[in-house]
Amino acid sequence: MWCRKKKRETGVTIRDGVRKVLTAKRDAQLATSLLLVIWVSVIVATSWQIWSAHQRTLSEIDTNNRNLAQTLNTYAEGVFTQSSMLLLGMLERLEVEGTTPEHLVRMQQLVGRQEHLLSQLNELLVIDASGKWLMSSRGKFVDGANSADRRFFSYHRDNPSHEIFIGAPIRSRSTGEWGLTISRRFESKEGDFAGVIVVVLGIENFLHLFGKIDVGEQGSIGLATTSGQLLVRYPFREQDLGRDFSRSPNFLRYYSNLKSGTASFESGIDGTERLYAFRSNERYPIFTVVARGRYEALQAWRSQALLTAGVVLGLLAVVTLIGWRLILLIRQRAQAETSLMAVREKLLDANLELERLATQDSLTGLANRRRFDEVLQLEVRRAARDGTVLSLLLIDLDHFKGFNDRYGHVAGDECLKAVSRQLELSAKRSGDLAARYGGEELAIILPNTALEGGMRVAEELLKCIRGLGIAHESSQFGHVTVSIGAASIRGRHGLASPLDLVEAADQALYRAKAAGRNRAEC
C-alpha cells in the first residue's frame, strides 16, 4: 500500500512535468504558427495593395491617354474642317469663274488674306485635268510642275465623288517640306473632270504641337487614316511617313473595327511596349493614337512598390527575429523542463529507493520492523476511529537455531526467504502487510479482519510452509514448520495500544510453541 501510494505521488509529479513540457512545446508550435500566419497575412495584404496600386496606375494612364486622344482628335477634326471649308469656297469660284489667269490671281490673293485663319496651311494648289499646276498660294512655281503622279490626283480623276480626300504625306515639289494633302475634285460646266484643288498642311506644325505634350521619352502620338496609313507620328522619323500598317496584327486586332479603346502591346515600328489609347473621328476617316512606354509609365508605381516591399520585408525581418528569439526561448524552456523532469524523476526514484530501503528488510524483502511499527500504529488508530476489527499474526520458525547449526547460515537465510515469500502470498489484500519482526520472527497485519479470518489465514500459511518440504532433521517433524500466534481488537471496545495487540499475539504464539509447535493459537 505504501509503495503504491509513493508510486502514485511520483506519477503525479511526472505527469505535472510532462504537462509542462507539452505545454512548452505547444507554445513553441503556436508561436511558429502565429509567425507563419503573420508572414502570410502581411505578404498577401502587401501583394494585394501593390497589385491594386498597379491596376489603379494603369487605369489612370488609360484615362489620361483617352482624354489626350480625344483632345487631339478634336484638334485634327478642326484643322481638317477648316481646310475643307477653304477648299469648298475656292472650288465654287473655280467652277463658276473658271481657271482664267485673272480668276486664278484673285483666288491667290483671297487665299493670302485667309492664310492667318489656318496656321497649319503650307500651300494651296490648283491642278488641271492633266496634272499641270495652275496656281500656288505661294506665288511663283517651277514651270512644268505636274502632279499627275500623285495619289490624290489619280483618286479624284478616277472617282467622281465630291468629298474631300485625305492623302498620304508628300514632300512638296515647291518647298521641299513634308505635308498632308486634303483635296477636292472640281469639274467643268459640262460635268467632266477639270482638275483638283489641294490644301497641303505642314507636318512640322503637327509635330510642333505634339512635341508640347508630355508622353515621356518612350511615348508616341500618331495620326492615321482608318485604312491603316500613317499620316503623322511623334517622335518624327521620316521613314515612317505614309507607312501602311493595314495588315499588321495590332491594327487588325485593335484599330480596324473599334471606335475607341485602350490596349497594351509591342510597337511594330520600334519594338517598344506601350500603353495605347485610340479614338476614331466621326466626321473624317482618321483616328488619333496616344501611347506611353509601359516601363516608363509604371516607373513611379515600381519605385513605390519597391519602397513598400522593402519596408514590409524589413518589418517582417524584425518580427521574424523577435518571433524566432521567442521560439528559441520557449524551446530552451521546454528542454530545460525536460532535463528538469528527467533529473526530478531520477531523484524521485532515488528517494523511493531510499525510502524503500529504509522500510524494507534487505534479506527477505518484507517490510522491516520500523515499517511494521508505523503501519500497526496507523491501523490501530484507524480501527479505533472507524470501529473496525484488526488482526495480527506473529510467526516464528520452529527450531530455527538448530537449522542454522546443522545447515549453516546461508541455508538458513534461504529458508527464511522461502517462508517470507509465502507470507507475501498470504497477505493478498492491498491493506495487508507482511513484515520481518526480528530474527526468525515474522508478522502479518490484517486490517478489517476478524479473529476467525486471521485464523484461516494462519492455517493456510501453515499448510503452505509445510508444502515447501524444506528438510529440517533437527525438528521432530523432519521439515521446516512455523508456530503462529493470532490476536485481534475491535475499535472502541478492544485494546488501547499497538503494544497490547502485539503482547496478545505473542502470548498466543507462546501457547502454540508450548502445545508442540507447528500450529496456530489465538
Structure description:
It is a single chain. This protein is α+β, with helices and mostly antiparallel strands. It has helices at 2-97, 101-114, 151-158, 203-211, 249-255, 294-297, 299-359, 369-386, 400-407, 409-426, 451-468, 498-514, and strands spanning 121-128, 133-136, 165-166, 170-171, 178-187, 193-202, 220-225, 230-234, 260-266, 273-280, 286-293, 389-397, 433-438, 441-447, 471-472, 478-479, 482-490, 520-521. The strands form four sheets. Strands 1, 2, 3, 4, 5 and 6 form a six-stranded antiparallel beta sheet that branches. A five-stranded antiparallel beta sheet has the order 8-7-11-10-9, sandwiched between helices. Strands 13-14-12-17-18 form a five-stranded mixed beta sheet, sandwiched between helices. β10 (273-280) and β11 form a beta hairpin. α1 (2-97) runs antiparallel to α2 (101-114), α1 runs antiparallel to α7 (299-359) and α10 (409-426) crosses α11. The chain is rod-shaped, with a radius of gyration of 61 Å. It starts with a helix and ends with a strand.
Shape label:
rod-shaped
Major pleated sheet = 6 strands, antiparallel
| Count of helix runs | 12
Mean pLDDT: 85
Order of helices and strands: HHEEHEEEEHEEHEEEHHHEHHEEHEEEHE
Amino-to-carboxy terminus distance:
26 Å
Radius of gyration of CA atoms, rounded to a whole number: 61 Å
% residues in beta strands = 15-25%
Fraction of residues in helix: 40-55%
Number of strands: 18
Low-confidence stretches: none
Helical/strand content category: alpha+beta
What keyword list fits this structure?
522 residues, alpha+beta, five-stranded antiparallel β-sheet, six-stranded antiparallel β-sheet, 20% strand, rod-shaped, 12 helices
